[in-house]
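Hi everyone,

Forwarding the result from last night's run.
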Amino acid sequence: MRETIWLSRNLLLVALIASLTLLLGACNGQETATVEQTFGSSPALPEPETSIFPTVNVAKAIGWPAGGKPIAAKGMAVSAFATGLDHPRTLLVLPNGDVLVAETNAPERPDENRGIKGFITKLVLGRSGADTPSANRITLLRDANGDGVAETRSVFLEGLNSPFGMALVGDDFYVANSDAIMKFPYRSGDTRITAPGVKVADLPGGPLNHHWTKDLTASTDGTKLYATVGSNSNIGENGIDNETSRAAVLEIDRATGKSRVFASGLRNPNGPAWQPQSGALWVVVNERDELGNDLVPDYMTSVKDGGFYGWPYSYYGQHVDARVQPQRPDLVAKAIVPDYALGAHTASLGLAFNTGKLFPPEMANGAFIGQHGSWNRKPRSGYKVIFVPFANGMPSGRPQDVLTGFLNSDGEAQGRPVGVAIDRQGALLVADDVGNAIWRVTPAAR
């Protein structure tokens, strides 16, 4: 009886602390820069702010009302390519025009979200729609008549382990699970794979696996795979020994499965894509939390072989994060400044270069970016799809909104954009994991 009373009181205490944290966090912090100042090649970097309670400003996930959809920018139109999916996150367009979507969520992570802070994190995940079981499958969507709507869907691959990244090289289809890269046989036109997969390489996983998403692309010559792996913490607080081969882009030899760190110091990279003019590999990166509303901007950057980008010891080059001890001045000295800031706490997860010819010529080779949206910034940031123009292989202008309206007038999340891709006709596809839909964006009819 005493144990029951003790447990009840402690659970009540935890709940009260969690509620207090949410209330205080929602009111904590003042915006110190306009959103526009946290974008571009030279973002504003205010002084760090620390407090007992970090800002918590979660948009409750409610989904779209009947007939609801995002708002397309002027000169563009948006329609539903597919609806009724289960937490769609990433997309891959096959050469025949079929679209693959990973319906997925976090795997079991028994060492994640422990203690009071972990309990609060679970509340945040639940409110934001992220704390749902993973479907662990890849679904194939086919638009046979080319009208911009998928008429058929089929289970392409199932029984996976929180799949995220996908790549096709010849007749080999690769999936980045949360802990390994798997290979499956594929023939053009297949609507389902039933053959067992073969493990190509292990990826950092385990019972902690803080940033579980592992994105994937193949080199243009098909000899290498590049996998993105996020950190196992915010700033290394779980121990640097838990960060081996994390916060990095890994290069995997497709023939042997041998893996090496290609680039490091990238807290949570995603969306690996090849810039069509320069041929360089680019990623979007989610930076660290709890330094204030305007620190640290997420970013996109080209990644250099052997390059180090600061995490956890510094951000945006040599801006030292004093919370991290012991420091590594030798690494900070060589930290590379990212190419282009994408706004603080926007949770930019999707990246696709415009290689099609459907959009206006001035949009050629530019970057579409899916911004999943903040949970720890006031006012909120992200919750949109943006476009950044490129010239000569580098960003060449301010970001432009492509899709907005994911938050309603009450600040609730009707949808949250994640992966983006260009379809065979050149239209933009956007995975929406709260709206459970794939949106298709085209130029507006004239």
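The CA atoms of residues 400 and 440 lie 17 Å apart.

Cheers,
N.
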